[in-house]
Write a structure and sequence with these properties.
alpha/beta; Rossmann fold; 9-stranded mixed β-sheet; 13 helices; 9 strands
Length: 304
């Protein structure tokens, strides 16, 4: 029991009494959702494990999209479906998330996630790309930009996480499985107002739930154990790429002052605040995100 979070002791009785119903929900949803989830999906075996990604479009320009915690490439589907043809779009499953399966013994720190991502992009012959990361994905994108500047041409940091350390102890594997794979906890993480949710938002939640339900608890435990969150403050002054920082003024996950701090620490960065927006910008404010991505791409074309 040593190191077991008090919060977990409170939550387990509340969410652990419906494992059978939870499993039945997964079994009911997965067959229906699987075709759309697997659309344009690929995988490759790497030294870091089997890395999964969604890729669509062709052309000399590349856009790389990096998801946040307990998300996957599916987080970006609303965005990729609206992007123009002639753009090669790669939405990744970070190692241990989505359909990516880490190799035994491989670290799941953010640094290691960024190195695995670099391996994948290098195998796809991607360089000088526009790279967009959301929340945790913004921290990984920053590491990629610093350690492999040839891969990243322009950077977009959406609701960037990584300024604050984790601040809670590592949760044992059985408890991780019980908590993070439970539908009630997943709904809490989604921060979706279920009474006000649109059919599209409910469908998106269902997709991400069935994907997370497939992730073994031991992967999430390793991710927690190796977590190096909090390094973004050190990385930011070393970023040399042109960077756009975006956040919502009603974000309850990453405080808006964190976005302001990122801009202060990042030389030459520009900022956009989306009024009324919360944390999940790719899904809840898809149009704004698409326009900002297109703006960055168009500005690159004008320079060239």
């Amino acid at each position: 029991m040593d190191g077991l979070p008090i919060l977990a002791l409170v939550l387990v009785p509340a969410v652990g009494f419906l494992p059978a119903a939870d499993l039945m929900t997964f079994l009911r949803w997965w067959p229906r959702l699987r075709p759309s989830v697997m659309r344009d999906r690929h995988s490759v075996v790497s030294p870091y494990g089997r890395l999964s990604y969604v890729m669509r479009g062709r052309g000399p320009r590349a856009l790389v999209l990096i998801h946040g915690f307990l998300e996957s490439a599916e987080q970006w589907r609303p965005v990729t479906d609206l992007l123009p043809e002639g753009l090669r779009v790669i939405a990744v499953d970070l190692n241990s998330f989505g359909f990516s399966v880490p190799a035994k013994g491989v670290s799941l720190s953010k640094q290691s996630l960024s190195e695995a991502l670099h391996w994948l992009l290098n195998s796809l012959e991607v360089s000088d790309a526009v790279v967009a990361g959301h929340s945790m994905g913004a921290e990984v994108a920053g590491m990629l930009a610093v350690n492999h500047p040839e891969t990243v041409g322009d950077l977009i940091l959406l609701a960037p996480g990584g300024l604050r350390s984790r601040g809670f102890p590592v949760i044992p594997t059985p408890l991780v499985t019980l908590l993070f794979k439970n539908i009630l906890v997943q709904r809490r993480f989604s921060r979706l107002d279920w009474s006000q949710a649109s059919p599209e938002q409910r469908e998106r939640f269902a997709v991400q739930y069935v994907i997370n339900r497939r992730i073994p608890g031991r992967f999430l435990h390793r991710f927690q154990r190796d977590d190096d969150t909090g390094s973004l403050e050190v990385i930011l002054p070393r970023i040399r790429q042109k960077t756009l920082v975006v956040w919502g003024d009603r974000d309850r996950v990453i405080p808006p002052e964190d976005g302001q701090k990122v801009v202060r620490l990042l030389p030459g960065a520009s900022a956009v605040v989306i009024p009324g927006a919360g944390h999940d910008l790719p899904a809840a404010h898809t149009g704004d995100v698409v326009r900002l991505i297109q703006r960055v791409i168009d500005e690159r074309e004008d320079i060239r």
